[in-house]
Amino acid sequence: MPKTKLRIGWPGNFREIQAEIPAGDPPPWDADSKLSVVGARLPRVEGPDKVTGRAKYTSDMAPAGMLTGGVLRSPHAHARATALDLGPARKLPGVKAALELEREPRYAGQAVAAVAAESPLQAQAALDAIVVTWEVLPHVTDPEEARRPDAPRVLGGRNPNARGGASENAADEAACGRALAAASASVDLTFRTPVVEHTCLESHGSLASWEGDALTVWDSTQAVASVRDGLARGLQVPANSVRVVKEHMGGGFGSKLGMGETALIAARLAKEAGRPVRVLNDRKAEQTTGGNRPSSVQRLRLGADKAGTLSVMWLESSGTGGVGGGAGCSGPFRTLYRAGVMRDEHTDILTNAGRAQAFRAPGHVQGMFALESAIDALAIEAGIDPLEFRLRNDASDLRRAEYAEGARRIATGRSVRRARGRMYRRLRDRWTPRRSRPGSTPA
Amino acid sequence: MSTARDGGLSRRDFLGVTGALAGSGLLGGAAGGGEPPAGPASIGPGAIRVGLRVNGVPRDADCDARATLLDVLRDGLGLTGAKQACDRGECGTCTVLLDGRPVYACMVLALQARNREVRTIEGLAKGEVLHPVQRAFVEHDAFQCGFCTPGQIMSAVGLLERAPAATPEDVEAGMCGNLCRCAAYVRIRDAVNAVAKGK
Ligand code: FES
Ligand code: FES
């Protein structure tokens, strides 16, 4: 592969590297590249469309003949439909399709059945007409209760509710205990963060239309390819017969990276009805089924030696992403600092609640909040300025340069002058004489 | 064919009223039998015609008596600039001007807007020439996904027509009914302040 010399880094720390660039690839940018678009103040290409209302979102698409889809959702965290009769719904005026989706929902809000009708009111009337008899089954929605051995199994069968353990290469608990005892400053703090919802202003939604065997779906998605693949799998059709379109999307924040359930429901309803069908989550469905960031409970035990160097870091975490996993939050713990003795262990807990979805660097928001709060507390405990403590312990040259630059700008007010508004002035006035301790109320 | 009094009747009041009427059998249908009931009982279920003035043009739409102004704009008239995000008067994405005042179109019955002046985002630009608030939103990059943007702009236009010399404090207060989930707030504020004459 041809080699190209590149100058990379940041002011005060540039270096040259030899990069291998595949033949035919454009030359990569480096510090000496003259860029005309990046870094320039340019108005958004789609700006005029967005400020005039011309920009069309999935929820704005309404082709001729379109039907409105509606979804019947479970009112229970876990239940079995001993009777589920779509017949009365099918007989109502305007109803063109009806589908059974799930007889044993495992969280409140899970889709149970769906209908398509000429108007939203007819769709609602059809949902109301569906006859369903529920047998409520044991369920657990509290993560602490879900961990108990006698808790109802969220996924049924022998699937355990709690899964996890220590990461590879983790020091053992005894070693952590000894290091903490030997530390000249230490903290032992527990942080709790709640489940957080994405709350996209445009809910998950899809409009599906068949022409023969070819399916076109307009979807409020961050990833048209994953929706196409999901539809192909879910409908057992070749991927090249599925086209997914998204021009504008009213927020995703990670919750629209995979295929949402509305795509498949709309496609199946449209097939049955022989007409285009649009299925949009209403606000309640969006909040209960549109995805969320898992909760966390993080116990952090940190110790530092006399020189203010981290000697031991120990994270014990757990969290729930409802019926899905992915509550881990140790990313920052494993990447920001190093200590001689390190241990992290995590337990993912299943509960009868809506499934978690990716949300803005999954796990990092919770992890960063707890870790950096604990680092502040440890610095104070060690009698060292929290910024100075980070400069001593952060192994990344780049991040240390950023800390220094940030401190310089705040001290000289450069960024403050540039940023307009009272908020920034208030921030500066509070920051300069930093007298508060972590956990205290800002003055 | 309607019971909507002018003003003073919220959508929730209305739904409560119809609920109560249905409960007492006054809505007719199966419970009533015999004579067709008079007065309020003749609401629904068929479509009713509402005449609106939208962006200066008289428009007729046939809709259910329970339809909101937002339903009629979006589904009946194809004006999809105003968005529905919460459908409960909390987010402001559906903001339009009703007789010059910003309102949440999801909280106004179409019937209540009869013979009143409705202005939507679609009526703001003159051809390709943007309204000063629209231009300021583009110049200040006051959005990301853009879903809240039509509502933000209509709130700002309503505020600035009422108070052209709005101060930054007025702007903060006047724009507080519109959520932006992408959190473009600082730029939205800058854009509106750039058009406002107050200092
Ligand atoms: S949709 Fe009307 S206020 Fe949210
Ligand atoms: S720009 Fe996305 S919600 Fe405001």
Q: List segments of chain A where confidence is low: pLDDT < 50 over at least 5 consecutive residues.
A: none
Most strands sheet of chain A: 7 strands, mixed
**CA-atom Rg of chain A in angstroms:** 27 Å
User: Count the helices of chain B. How many?
Assistant: 6
Spatial order of strands in the largest sheet of chain B: 2-1-5-3-4
Please supply descriptive tags for the structure shown above.
heterodimer; A: 443 residues; alpha+beta; Aldehyde Oxidoreductase, domain 4; 7-stranded mixed sheet; 5-stranded mixed sheet; 18 strands; 29% helix; 26% strand; B: 199 residues; 6 helices; 31% helix; globular; disordered N terminus; binds FE2/S2 (inorganic) cluster
Question: Concise description?
Answer:
Chain A is α+β, with helices and mostly antiparallel strands and 443 residues long.
Characterize the structure shown:
The complex is a heterodimer of chains A (443) and B (199). In chain A, a hairpin with a 2-residue loop joins strand 1 (3-10) and strand 2. Chain A has three domains: 1-42, no CATH class; 58-139 and 199-290, Aldehyde Oxidoreductase, domain 4, CATH 3.30.365; 162-196 and 293-395, 2-Layer Sandwich (Aldehyde Oxidoreductase, domain 4). The longest helix of chain A has 19 residues, at 364-382. Helix content of chain A is 29%, strand content 26%. Chain A has 14 helices and 18 strands. Chain A is α+β, with helices and mostly antiparallel strands. Chain B is of the alpha+beta class and 199 residues long. Helices cover 31% and strands 13% of the residues of chain B. Chain B has helices at residues 11-23, 69-76, 132-139, 149-162, 168-174, 185-195; strands spanning 48-54, 57-63, 95-98, 101-104, 117-119. Chain B has a five-stranded mixed β-sheet with strand order 2-1-5-3-4, sandwiched between helices. In chain B, helix 3 crosses helix 6 (185-195). Chain A binds chain B through residues 43-44, 46-57, 59-60, 62, 120-121, 199-203, 248-251, 253, 282-283, 420-421, and chain B through 64, 66, 71, 74-75, 78-88, 91, 93, 120-122, 124-125, 130, 134-135, 137-139, 141, 143, 145-150, 153, 179, 181-182, 186, 189-190. The structure holds FE2/S2 (inorganic) cluster (2 copies). One FE2/S2 (inorganic) cluster (FES) binds next to loops of chain B.
